[in-house]
Design a protein that fits this description.
102 residues, 2 strands, 4% strand, globular
């Protein structure tokens, strides 16, 4: 396999991980979400989806080379990168508080 094929496959995998993370968060986002410091929305993701999200964040942190003082900070940095990759913006269902179908 040539390098360009490997990079293409890695890019497809990165986007798939980002979209799956976004889908799982959207699924558990509700209008009564808790707002934390600085307007941060806290989403409670129950088991078994929480285990999937944790695994996705760990994989993303490793792939993106994210580092933090704790595992939670590392996962938060990976989540921010994933949401950017997934096109998290003003039109996002996550931003609007709407739960997507799927």
């Amino acid at each position: 396999m040539i390098a360009s094929e490997r990079f293409e496959r890695a890019a497809v995998l990165g986007v798939a991980v980002a979209e799956e993370t976004r889908r799982l968060l959207s699924r558990h986002l509700d209008a009564a979400g808790v707002e934390g410091d600085g307007g941060t929305v806290l989403v409670d993701v129950p088991y078994p989806d929480a285990a999937v999200v944790t695994a996705l964040l760990d994989v993303a942190a490793e792939c993106f080379g994210e580092r933090g003082d704790s595992i939670e900070e590392t996962r938060q940095a990976a989540l921010e990168t994933l949401l950017q990759l997934a096109g998290f913006d003003a039109e996002s269902q996550l931003n609007c508080g709407e739960v997507g179908g799927g």
